[in-house]
Amino acid sequence: MEMNQDKTEPTDANPVVKISGLSKRYGQTQALDNVSLTIPSGVVFALLGENGAGKSTCLKTLLGLEKPDTGTAEVLGLDCKKDGIKIRSTVGYVPESPALYDWMTVKETGWFAAGFYGDDFEAEFERLAAEFDLPLDRKIKKLSKGGRAKVSLALATAHRPPLLIMDEPTSGLDTLVRRKFLESMIDIASSGRTVLLSSHQIPEVERVADIVAVVNQGRVLVCKPLDELKQGMEQWVITLDNDDADLPEFDAQVLLHEGQNSRRRRLLVTNTTPDCLWKLRDHPLVNAVEVHTPSLEEIFVALMKSAEAGLLIQNSN
Q: How far apart are CA 36 and CA 18, in angstroms?
């Protein structure tokens, strides 16, 4: 089986982000490997992958902070190689570790940033600070990690950017702050703007993402709307006649096979047909077949194991 790495679905007439054939190497490490993605407006788009998968490199390239070795990338119609400064002044960006001036108060931080965005920014920043329960007179150095993260989010969204880029924004945050971040993503997308989220937190991605691109070792394994991703795969729990019985052959693509040495087998499959399932159920060595919709975590694990085994996914879009 062979993986098609050139995933460009879904799309719209005026994509917010368009990436084509993007590659980037650091020494012996291939951070990005022929990545192609199109991100429409008004969605929460998640780059889901383990640490070191290439997610942050992709975001930095979009912001014009890294230059790709090959390929092209556009944000809001701007060339990421040439227009990095304009992109960074237009979009909102929440890094994993916000760089803030510790000696400033929350209010002074908003006042300082307003110099880059205009008069309306400061008022909106202070409104968001109140919504996030941030004391305006508190110095940044006196804030918790969650408090600093809230300041970063307020700074990134006070100018109402058409695109908000978030790099592992909830890492290490407590439950209530994490919830606030997730709610903000949904609110932004519902207003017609776009959120590009990089994360390894599967439950969070499953909760907020409209579209998920699973990334592994710099490659996009699959890119689909979350509902389509789940509907396109099934979890089969097969109970065989005895422990020594071999699993019958069937016409479907197996992404994950667990319990190979037991009577009860659990498989994650795609490219199935109703006839395939009925034939399997009618096989004399099969006692029962249960069919379930897999969780995003189950799909993610299957994709990772398939990639590691060299069983690269075919027709995943």
A: 8
- pTM comes to 0.86
310: confidence class by pLDDT, cuts 50, 70, 90: low
Phi, psi of 265 (to 5 degrees): -110, 140
| 301 contacts: CB under 8 Å, gap ≥ 6 | 256
So what's the pLDDT on residue 23? 96
What is the per-residue pLDDT for 267?
87
Q: Which residue has 């790495």 as its token pair?
A: 5
> For 276, left (φ over 0), alpha (ψ -120 to 50), or beta?
alpha
Q: CA 99, 101, 105, 110: dihedral to nearest 10 degrees?
A: -60
**52: alpha, beta or left, given left = phi > 0 and alpha = psi -120 to 50?**
left
The Cα 272–Cα 7 span in angstroms is: 21
Q: Please say whether the beta carbons of 36 and 220 come within 8 A.
A: yes
In the numeric block, the tokens 């942050």 are attached to: 56
